[in-house]
Amino acid sequence: MINRIPLQSKRTSFIILLFLIAFINPSCKTESGKPVDKPNILMITSEDNSAYFLGCYGNEMATTPNLDKLAAEGFMYTRAFANCPVCAPARNTILTGVYAASNGNEQMRSKYAKSEIVKTYPEYFREAGYYCTNNVKTDYNYAGDWDAIWDECSRTATYNNRQQGQPFFAVFSNFTTHESQIHKQIPTAELKHDPAKVEIAPYHPDLPEIRHDWAQYYDRNEQMDAEIGQILKELEESGEAENTIVIYYGDHGGVLARSKRYVYETGTRVPFIIRIPEKYQKLFPAKNPGEPVERIVSFVDLLPTFLSIIGVEIPDHLQGNAFLGEQKTKNPEYAFMTRQRMDERFDMVRAVRDNKYRYIRNYMPFRITMQHLDYLFRAPSAQAWEDAFKAGNTNKIQSRAFLEKPLEELYDTENDPWEINNLAENPEYAEILERMRKAETDWMRETRDVGLIPEMDYQYFAGQGAFYDYMRSEDCPFEELLEAAQQATNPDADIEYFIQNLQNENRAIRYWGAVGLLIHRDKAASAVNALKVAVTDSSSAVATLAAETLFRMNYQDLAVSSYERILADTVAYSSLDRCFALNSVDAVNASSPFLKSQVEKVYFMKPDQQATMVENYDQRIAKTLLLKWDMLADEPN
User: Fold this and answer.
1) What are the mean pLDDT values of the chain's consecutive 10-residue runs (637 residues total)?
2) The domain at 453-628 falls in which architecture?
């Protein structure tokens, strides 16, 4: 007797069979020809190049035919931004879908913990069956094994090693446009782009070194374009182009001085192009390939977009907006950018960009924009600019980068693309200023911005744990911290409020009391006694800024004694504490025989193997000071 299977069971079995086939062979199709596979994703990044340097973004001097062709075949995003204007924290944001400033991984080249809540995108892809390769840069700015999250992570990593039919996610990083590529000058006669014909930014003085570096960087972009063209050619030859979404972007802006590391358009607006095969046209962000896309996107949006593309539910902790796929959100109103310590130089800046305006809030306006950072000033153009300023050969716009910053900046990026006309004090823009200021404050609250804690006190508050977790714990007085920071950078000073904060039991709130008094020092005569106590604070952040305030108020001997104490005490204070104190010494140009001897000791000190910074940046700034004081022969880099 033959057992007959009911019709409903047959249908169920057929559906199960289709599912199993799709799982085993992701490239299969139904009989109707409708794709049921997951797309491959090939992601190509180039280092340090702004959108400005690509022909498809309107620069007629740029020679980037391969990327121009990719834009014509795909979709070019005209408002794409890096959330940090430097590589390591920018990559941290890309990798995790959480702002580096929210992870506690924003400080350049540091190794602070990452929360277990926060996963990386290769982990999501691998769980979904993808073969994930990285060729080759990691530099993710957190403590952990960066290679372990990939199936392959090396200079030879390739998607060709996957199992048959397995979808891949492959990253290729191009180094050709990196900042280091202008440190050594190509002879002018060998340049392809004529220095005399380049348009230089109005904040740059018209100097031969600056023109040369602009032209050389155009050459490097041309070279980068050819190398990316080869990667795209290899994809075509593999036969996988019709199954592969190609994503190209620059990892942040750069590299001429006042771009990389700074939250202006030149530091954060990046080229961003996606080419989507016809079989995945349901993902098209515009009707036809070749059409520009004006939606605001930023790096924090990448991970949720990846998950939306491959059909994985987006976790609640991710902070970006999916801009493709079933989980695509409505267009965001803003992109947010942040900056903290860059190598040996400290600063804290937050920025908000809408479709037209850029708002910037400077939480350390007492630090100039163009602090002398060792790596940045290896570029002949940067050094020439500084030399011209010191010689009095720069105009008002060109000098601004070497003067203290305003508390707030507001720019009309459509009519002022180089951002030189600050509208923050223009009453006609008061409503826009207030709206964007509120957006910045709301964002800090929503993301639990770790920048509210000075880096020197990270370990005091979180130990070896992740700051992402600490900022969301009951131990963190977040609203008090946020209020203290906002008031410290408020144009309307409340000196008594700052004095109270300087005496608070929480050292981070004391820090913001010191910041407020330093910013508003011209009105802070009543705070002198509190500052004299604060220079002995157990927090080097508080003690240093209290000393700097007193120095600028003509209590210089007391201030110098505080600097000397921090530098001499190598038990209580770390290389990070010394680095912060040396930044202050440099800013006020403090000196004494004993102070100079302590700086010399720092320079020759054995590297601190327990430093939370990847390198001992205190030794870099010690070198800068010794050179300034003519105590050290200039050494070739």
Assistant:
1) 37 40 40 59 98 98 98 98 98 98 97 97 98 97 97 98 97 98 96 98 98 98 98 98 98 97 98 98 98 98 98 98 98 98 98 98 98 97 98 98 98 98 98 98 98 97 97 98 98 96 98 98 98 98 98 98 97 95 98 97 82 83 96 67
2) Alpha Horseshoe (1.25)
The alpha carbon dihedral of 572, 577, 578, 583 has a sign of: negative
**R_g of the chain, CA atoms, integer Å:** 26
- Going from N- to C-terminal start, the domains of the chain cover 36-329, 453-628
| DSSP state at residue 159 | G
Q: Are 274 and 75 in contact (CB under 8 A)?
A: yes
Straight-line distance from the first to the last Cα atom of the chain, in angstroms, rounded to the nearest whole number: 89
Can you tell me the distance from the alpha carbon of 44 to that of 232, in angstroms, rounded to the nearest whole number? Answer: 9
CATH superfamily membership of 36-329: Alkaline Phosphatase, subunit A (3.40.720.10)
* DSSP, residue by residue, 287-300: SSTT--EEEEEEGG
Full strand arrangement of the beta sheet holding 335-339: 335-339, 349-353, 357-362, 408-412
Answer for the pair 56, 68: CB distance below 8 angstroms, yes or no.
yes
What residues are labeled active site? 87
Q: Alpha carbon of 406 to those of 67, 116, 367, 440, 477: distances in Å?
A: 38, 38, 10, 17, 28
